[in-house]
Amino acid sequence: xxxxxxxxxxxxxxxxxxxxxxxxxxxxxxxxxxxxxxxxxxxxxxxxxxxxxxxxxxxxxxxxxxxxxxxxxxxxxxxxxxxxxxxxxxxxxxxxxxxxxxxxxxxxxxxxxxxxxxxxxxxxxxxxxxxxxxxxxxxxxxxxx
Length: 145
Fold this sequence. Notes:
Keywords: DNA-binding, Metal-binding, Nucleus, Repeat, Transcription, Transcription regulation, Zinc, Zinc-finger. It comes from Araneus ventricosus (Orbweaver spider). Residues 5-32, 33-60, 61-88, 89-116, 117-144 form the C2H2-type domain. It is found in: Nucleus. The chain is an alpha+beta fold. Among the domains are: 58-86; 88-144, Classic Zinc Finger (Double Stranded RNA Binding Domain, 2-Layer Sandwich), CATH 3.30.160.60. Helix content is 44%, strand content 14%. It has 5 helices and 10 strands, in the order E-E-H-E-E-H-E-E-H-E-E-H-E-E-H. The strands form 5 sheets. The protein has a two-stranded antiparallel ribbon with strand order 1-2. The chain starts with a strand and ends with a helix. The model has no long low-confidence stretch (mean pLDDT 91).
């Protein structure tokens, strides 16, 4: 009988000690895998390898419909929703559906009036990061005058 290795924090079991060790980092926050280019760190070696594609611009995943390429398979799967019009994320408050989970989160913040993104220059708050980034142009344009 195969011996299982059990996480002492959450009691999840693994067939190999190396899998337990890798899992345990989710509890400790340890990130020993560091990008040599930008110093970003990762708990998993596989995540570091995926991250390197940002620097190499490698995009091995190609959409069969429009031939757009992506560095991550998950990004390609998310992109396919553009073609299928699939919207699997539904707001429990108003029933509006979204193709991206991040868009659903923005919707929830609209309902709750939460504005976690704050301008460092004037302290104006925004419900999503893209609006904050667009707002920053107000300050850069004022400086150009």
